[in-house]
Structures are given as structure tokens and as C-alpha cells.
Write a structure and sequence with these properties.
This protein has helices at 30-39, 56-61, 63-71, 100-107, 128-138, 151-165, 184-203, 242-248, 259-262, 277-290, 303-309, 314-334, 384-393; strands at 4-9, 87-91, 144-148, 169-172, 177-183, 210-217, 225-226, 231-234, 253-256, 270-272, 296-301, 340-344, 363-368, 375-380. With 406 residues, it is an alpha/beta fold. The strands form 2 sheets. It has an 8-stranded mixed sheet with strand order 10-9-11-1-12-13-2-14, with helices on both faces. Strands 3, 4, 5, 6, 7 and 8 form a 6-stranded mixed sheet that branches. Strand 9 (253-256), helix 9 (259-262) and strand 10 (270-272) form a beta-alpha-beta unit. The longest helix has 21 residues, at 314-334. The radius of gyration is 21 Å and the shape is globular.
């Protein structure tokens, strides 16, 4: 039974991108800097974790060697002498950005060759005429924020005023994104989703990649908390992806987490949501019970990026990596003959880096399953090699980008 399982650790870059300097990220290395901090005791947190970064399962698959391919060095505290039992390597991104849709689309065979639109980093960063049109159509008294900001910080800053005034919180980041935070009950979840659809129409001429609904609960900054009801409103990929080819061939594509949103629900057979990495892992295991011959299970583990990378939380990121690594044998026990598992990422988000945005990095490629012969696949010139390899494995149509490495 040939199936493909893609486990995407959102933001788990491994450094070494040849064009990192063009993005202000020369030297960024999510894995390397986390490992370095942990080796020096700076990644410790009482009750959470301590000591060197401990990833025995991914190390056995070749993570340390993949990092050496990416940067020339083995991450601190990791065993670089262990002979990997998996197929390992790393990949450069050729898409013009370091954002979530670009990384995911390129992995599935469609690099982004155009430039996304962005909002300038200043107060009142959204065009005033566009905002007035949105306010009128959505029957809003106005908005708060209208700036670049971190999601949790901006909720703490404007959350109470939002509840009092009924004005949603609009903000953006270095990504091509328009984010809207609103209270699930005081503002209303369905009302937030409807507002996002209105905003999506108004920003299309600006070539903005995503509108993101960021619902939260709580009554004061001390207990405000974002919920798992996030929803992304993305533009469609510019060409058919691996997922489209699978659906057209009659296969089932099970999208776990925010995968369906990233692809604007195109090329998706089933959408399964879950809140947090542990729940996402459980949902992935359940999807493997249901997936049949030729099917794809594609999971985005968002906590690495959302909870730890953007918040520059080294200890939290390290603990999340170790928790994911401990559970990998559960995936292995679910595999059937000819199943292929690919562990990768879509970009970096170095928690030691300045600011709180993504970082331009190479990503790991770790593969296991019976079709895999252990060894190095070297440095791949594009993430699209992942999609080409999965397409070949599943006997699907391949696009013009990427080369098979299986």
C-alpha cells in the first residue's frame, strides 16, 4: 500500500540559505541556535525541559547530517557520528519570500515566482480609503491597531478596548498578510469570518497572500488567549499542485491543521482541524487509520512557529521539538508496506533572531518507510523536489518543477 505522509514542522529551518542576506537573515539558523542555547543551559525552563537538545529519533533519520549539509556544522550537543537509518538532506527555497503559502506551495511543486504585496512597516499601515470601504461594507465603527505587531502582544494592548468599542484589531507583519483579531463571543466568531471574507475581496488588488482570522477569549489582558478557531483566507496557488494532481487521479488528500486554508481548500478531500501540536499528532494518527492506497496525509504542526518561533521562546521551541520527536515511533507503527513519510518545514523562525518574523533558511528533508534507502540526497535546489518525489512514489502526474530523489 503506497501512501505519502508529510509532517511539516512549521518554521523548523536549519540555516544556511544562500540568499539569506537579501532578507536580512544572514546567519539565521533555527535548529542550530536552539541547540546552541540548550547546550549552554540557556534553553532550560523549570518544569519544562533542561540540558542539551534531545532529538534521538530525528537524529537517527539524519537531522544532524542534514544540518551539516545546510550550514557546514553539526548543531551543538547532537551526535554527528551516528549512521542515519533514513534518507536525509536539505533544500533551498526559490520562491520570492519566506512566508507560509510560498513554502507550502513550493513543497507541492509550485514555486512562487511573483512578488507578494506587503504593508509598509509604520503606524496606520493600511490604506485609509480601503479601510473606509471595509468599515462601510462590514458595518463597523472603525478598527484598532492598523500596524505591524505580534499577535499576543497586540491582543493584550487592544483587547479591552476592542470589547468596549466593537472595533476589530487589524494588524500585519513582515509576511504578506492582513490579520484580524476579535473576541469569539463579544464580537462573534461567525462575524469575524464574514469580516475576513470582506477584507479578502478588498486586498486582492494588492496581491496580499492571506487574511487570517485570529479569534480570542478572556476578559482582561491577564487571561486573553487565542483559540484554535483560527482560519486563513489564502489566494489560490498559481498552478496545480501535487494535491490537485492527487485529487484529479481519484486519491484522497487528508489535510490536518491549517493545510486546507493554505491551499485555499483546493486539492483537499478532507479537512481535519485540531488545536495544538499534541492534538495535531493525534489527528494525524487517526488519519492514517483512514487513508487508503495512493492517498496523502499532510499535517502542519503550527505551534513551532506560532507559539515559539514568533514569540522568540527558545525553551518552548526546544520542548516542542522534543515532544514531537518522542512521538515519531507512533507514526512508524502505523505505517504499511510502501508508505513514505517526509519530515520537512516551510521556512525558518529563529527564536534567537531580532524581531519576531520568519527567517530565510534551508529546510530539512528526512524520509523513512520501506521505499527509502538510507543515505544523503545532498542539498536540493528547490523545495519542489519533495513534491516531485512524492508524485513519483504515488505514480501521479508531476509538474515542471522539482526532481525525484527517492
Amino acid at each position: 500500500m503506497a501512501r505519502a505522509i508529510i509532517l511539516l514542522l512549521d518554521s523548523f529551518g536549519i540555516g544556511g540559505a544562500p540568499d539569506a542576506a537579501q532578507y536580512g537573515d544572514a546567519g539565521a539558523d533555527t535548529l542550530g541556535h536552539i541547540a546552541e542555547q540548550c547546550a549552554h543551559g540557556l534553553g532550560n525552563r523549570d518544569g519544562l525541559r533542561s540540558g542539551p537538545l534531545h532529538l534521538p529519533n530525528m537524529t537517527s533519520l539524519g537531522l544532524a547530517q542534514a544540518a551539516r549539509l545546510a550550514t557546514g556544522t553539526i548543531p551543538a550537543g547532537m551526535d554527528g557520528n551516528l549512521e542515519p537509518i533514513g534518507l536525509y538532506g536539505c533544500a533551498n527555497e526559490v520562491s520570492a519570500g519566506k512566508d507560509t503559502p510560498s513554502g507550502h506551495w513550493e513543497i507541492t511543486g509550485v514555486p512562487v515566482t511573483f512578488e507578494w504585496g506587503y504593508f509598509e512597516k509604520k503606524q496606520n499601515c493600511f490604506p485609509s480609503a480601503m479601510l473606509e470601504e471595509i468599515f462601510e461594507e462590514a458595518d463597523l465603527p472603525g478598527s484598532l491597531g492598523n500596524c505591524h505587531g505580534s499577535g499576543t502582544a497586540i491582543i493584550g494592548q487592544y483587547g479591552q478596548e476592542h470589547i468596549r468599542s466593537g472595533r476589530p484589531i487589524f494588524y500585519t507583519s513582515a509576511d504578506s498578510v492582513f490579520q484580524i483579531a476579535a473576541h469569539e463571543t463579544h464580537f462573534g466568531l461567525e462575524r469575524l469570518y464574514a469580516l475576513c471574507e470582506i477584507v479578502r475581496k478588498h486586498i486582492d488588488p494588492l496581491n496580499i497572500g492571506r487574511v487570517i482570522a485570529r479569534p480570542f477569549v478572556g476578559e482582561s489582558p491577564s487571561d486573553f488567549e487565542r483559540t484554535g478557531n483560527r482560519r486563513d483566507y489564502s489566494v489560490l496557488p498559481p498552478a496545480p499542485t501535487l494535491l490537485d494532481h492527487a485529487c484529479q487521479a481519484g486519491r484522497i488528500v487528508i489535510a490536518v491543521g491549517k493545510i486546507s486554508d493554505i491551499f485555499a481548500h483546493q486539492g483537499i478531500s478532507e479537512m481535519r482541524k485540531a488545536n495544538g501540536n499534541e492534538a495535531l499528532f493525534d489527528t494525524t494518527l487517526a488519519a492514517l487509520d483512514d487513508a487508503g492506497h495512493g492517498d496523502i496525509v499532510f499535517t502542519n504542526f503550527v505551534d513551532f512557529d506560532m507559539l515559539y518561533g514568533h514569540r522568540r521562546d527558545v525553551a518552548g521551541y526546544a520542548a516542542a521539538l522534543e515532544a514531537f520527536d518522542r512521538r515519531l515511533p507512533e507514526i512508524a507503527r502505523k505505517l504499511k508496506r510502501d508508505d513514505l513519510v517526509v519530515i520537512t518545514a516551510d521556512h525558518g523562525c529563529d527564536p534567537t533572531w531580532r524581531g519576531n518574523d520568519h527567517t530565510r533558511e534551508r529546510v530539512p528533508i528526512l524520509c523513512f518507510g520501506s521505499p527509502v534507502t538510507a543515505g544523503s540526497i545532498g542539498v536540493r535546489t528547490t523545495f519542489a523536489d519533495i513534491g516531485a518525489s512524492i508524485a513519483t512514489h504515488l505514480d501521479l502526474e508531476t509538474g515542471p518543477h522539482g526532481r525525484n530523489f527517492i
